[in-house]
Amino acid sequence: MTTAARTRAFIIAGLLPALILYLLFVVVPVFWSSYYGFFSWKGIGEMKFIGLDNYTEVLKDEIFWKSFVNNLYIVAYSVFGQVPIALLLAIVLARNSWYQRFLRASIFMPMVLSSVVIGLIWGYIYHPQIGILNFLLDSLGLSSWKLGWLSDPKVAMYSIGPPIIWANIGPYLILFIAALQNIPGEMDDAAQIDGATGLRKLFQITLPMIWGTIKVAIILCISGSLKAFDLIFIMTRGGPANSTELLATYMYNNTFNIFRYGYGSAVSTSIVIISLLLIAGSQFLMNRNKNVA
Amino acid sequence: MHTKPIPMSSSARGGSIVIRKMGRGATWCMLTFYALLTLYPLIWLFVSAFKDNQDFFSRPFGLPSSWHFDNFSRAWKVAGMDIALLNSAIVTSVSLVLTVLIGSLAAFILSRFHFRLKGAVMGLFLIGMLIPVHSTLVPLFIMMKEMSLLDTYAALVLPYIAFELPIAIFIISAYMTTFPKELEEAATIDGAGYWSIFCRIMLPLSMPAISTVAVLGFLRFWNDFAFPLVLINKPSLKTLPLSLSIFADGYGTDYSLTLAALTISVIPTIIIYLIFQEQIMKGMLAGSVKG
Amino acid sequence: MIMSRKWIQALVFLMILTTVLAGCGGGSTPKENTDNASSGKEQPAEKVKLSLWHNFTGEDLRAKAMRGIIEQFQNDHENIQLEIQAIPPDGYRQRLKTVAAANELPDVFIMHPGTIAKEFSSAGVIQPLDDLLNKHADWKDGYLPNSFDDFTFDGKIYSAPMSLSPTSILYYNKKILADNGLSVPTTWEELLHAVEVLNSKNIIPIALGNKAPWLAQSSILSSLADRVTGTEWFNKAVLQDGAKFTDPEFVEALSYMQELAMVGAFQEGFNAIDTTQMEQLYAQGKAAMMIEGGWAVTNLVASASEDILANTGVAILPSIPNGKGDPNTVSGAIGVGPAMSSKVEGAKKEAAEQLVLALAGPEAQKITLEANQLISFKAELDKSKVNPLFADLYELVNKVGRTPVYDARLTSQATEAVNNGLQELLLGAKPEDVAKKIQDAQEQGLKE
């Protein structure tokens, strides 16, 4: 076998298992579901072909767009909350003393909790009568700051931020620590010889070195935020009055509560398309920035 | 073995040692505070698990007025947690091993080889990270039925791997991209084939990224509720979240049992995480080239 | 880490192989094989296998009683082998819909009345029980009037209700009311007065937990609106036949509902707490009243202190001035019933019918009643066997008429619109706007 043929065989053999599994269990169902989007279907019984009706309804649907904006809030929480905080923590916690390990482990801890627990706990923090947050405000003499954290539609979407950031910092922290530890030691030595310390070193050496990882993190944030479902579903169920409705909860409600499978499928196809556009856009922006810098 | 210089303390220049030390002290205080803040909910969970329902509601943040150890044994029995734990362990570990193997192999090829369609394949996997799992439930159910895979471990394992592959490939290939080119070149000169480069060099070197993938995958598989709910009918194949959900009944929830059961289910995740954390941090600090 | 190359290759090919093979083996042969293997143990032939799905997973009396009935059935019928699947109520409907979409419904399953039953019947995935009911006249005739309405489609009866749920019961704390010089409000004015007095004493007048937004709809609006509009109007509006949800009477009903929130009848943050927490507010004596369905009795018995339980009374919602509806009514719906897949036939069908009878027949009805669950079946209640509060509820419900529950009649879309609309309404949205959304949803839901 020639080298080229061997390489080729290896590429195919290596990619095949991943591709087959992925196509069969992710891609096919997605297309299948976007196909359902062309039908008026209640999940059982007759499927009535209605062309693009569902999709045009999506475009005109107020709640759909409201959910989209709410999703953008979550994207903002994670890109401007999770990423910087995780990065900062990673820089401070990159060493391996027992105390740092302890701190890292505890910061990661929310990740091991299921959404049910997290939702329950934050529900109690924000609870209008017995919540610890209102209790704290009361005892600090700030009773006037008390709000209907999850019950006031104007406030609820902001109250969602802290739990989301808090619960999901762990993996980003690990991602950044792994990247930081991968910076060759020579870099640090060189930096010391140059006398670069503190912030200068951070901006001139550390950040550029792990820029690739930061990009990965941001893309993970965006895609994760667009899929966000569990926590909101448990904390507010998209309410009150759709004020915290997300694309995924809206899709879920349409499919499994109202049983509009056709419309729900159209919504989920739209989510995929919107996500694609967002990711493409953000990648474009980040690559341009890098070229400028 | 290469030891890293300490980022913050190494070069004490000028006369600002005292200020720096104070700053460090403040930083550590804040960090400790933050860590306690994040740990508190877990402590809350463990403490609340000992309360009875009434205690839980009247004093949600206090210590139990009496410690109900029987919550755990009741929860264990009611939810049939022994079978559920075993099922979850089987499904999770099989899915994890296969995800890591298949994922890092694909990541290796996508990050270290050049070929036509490479961008397309990468893009295809990238899209997978955006797909809301719930939207595929009905088609997946129908497919599993056609393949006679309903009520088997495979009905969970196969979609788990498929849905986790994109993120695995993404993280591992991003990590592998950072390796210098000479790595393979040297190995090729030594006469190693691609498979052995993958097994002997790439896999071990990528351990930090693989551990990350493993931790994420483990949590996802372990806590997943949607797939078993739809794809598993037999009580003997129930996974942990499915058995936990037994406590939530339509018109109210038995929180004391739920929290006890959640505590039981959280403990393995904590243990596994602590083991993996070591793995990540130890993980091959300096590679073969750097060393 | 030393992994031989062959080992990896073998693994990878195994992967591909299993995937491909699984893809090809679409036939039913493998499934039957495993079936035989598992049943081949004891009595090889004749044994009828029957799959049963239910949602009695809780630890409450009723769920335990139902599981007891099923267990008894298994003991009594050695020739029938049940494959039981108990699914928590939260995911139950979703699960049924999913398997129905794949035409894989279990042989016998517990089905909710109304919308889902209608869809199943029109899709032909379940079969009528008329023959069975007619064979057992004592059973069929034992039911209260209108019991089969929500299970009857195209003149055929598809299930028999196992319970009855009044959705709108006013639970009140006699002691708190008396201490403040109040009695149970029977008119709207009395209610508003009570709210004012209680608020001035810093007591929550009515506990409300509307996070899962069906509660305000099912427990408050269903009765309140009926008092204002009358049942006849509602039936017409559901069919969009001569009445619309934008009609002034319905807008007026919504205004009454809103007034409650505006005068502070509910505690703060009612949209953020769930029904369990709402019950706790009442059970801890922090609230003087609470409006919930009859099912709350079991929960209160489990969670309230004896003192509060002994002081708890049950009543219907107060009357509305100049209302068109009969004020001496409570909204209520029949509960779940057993349904039979249309695929069941022959010996299997005989067995399935026996199971249905065991689950919903006269015997089962009596057991259900004694498990503190109201039924839609004529049966004498032995008061010594149940909790006193349940006995009170039983008496109350037997004294008053029954009106429809909104979500049992509206299309799923309109139900969603009412649920979300009420959340908005209680926070100050205009009743006209909310009514418009409900009207639009019902109109569209009927079309699909």
Automatic annotation (TrEMBL), chain A:
Protein name as catalogued: Raffinose/stachyose/melibiose transport system permease protein
A GO cellular component entry from the record: plasma membrane
Entry's localization field: Cell membrane
Primary localization: membrane
Topological type in the membrane: Multi-pass membrane protein
Pfam families (UniProt xref): BPD_transp_1 (PF00528)
GO biological process: transmembrane transport
Lineage start: Bacteria, Bacillati, Bacillota, Bacilli, Bacillales
Keywords assigned by UniProt, alphabetized: Cell membrane, Membrane, Transmembrane, Transmembrane helix, Transport
ABC transmembrane type-1 domain residues: 68-282
Protein family: Belongs to the binding-protein-dependent transport system permease family.
Transmembrane segments: 9-32, 72-93, 105-125, 155-181, 261-280
Automatic annotation (TrEMBL), chain B:
Location in or out of the cell: Cell membrane
Domain ABC transmembrane type-1, residue spans: 85-276
PROSITE patterns to which the protein is assigned, alphabetical: ABC_TM1
Family named by the database record: Belongs to the binding-protein-dependent transport system permease family.
Membrane topology, from the record: Multi-pass membrane protein
GO biological process: transmembrane transport
Keywords for the protein's UniProt record, in alphabetical order: Cell membrane, Membrane, Transmembrane, Transmembrane helix, Transport
Principal location class: membrane
Protein known as: Carbohydrate ABC transporter membrane protein 2, CUT1 family
TrEMBL record, chain C:
Source organism (scientific name): Paenibacillus aquistagni
Protein name: Raffinose/stachyose/melibiose transport system substrate-binding protein
Pfam families linked: SBP_bac_1
InterPro entries xrefs: Bact_solute-bd_prot1 (IPR050490), SBP (IPR006059)
Superkingdom of the source species: Bacteria
Signal sequence region: 1-22
Phylogenetic placement of the source organism: Bacteria, Bacillati, Bacillota, Bacilli, Bacillales
Keywords attached to this entry: Signal
Coiled-coil region list: none
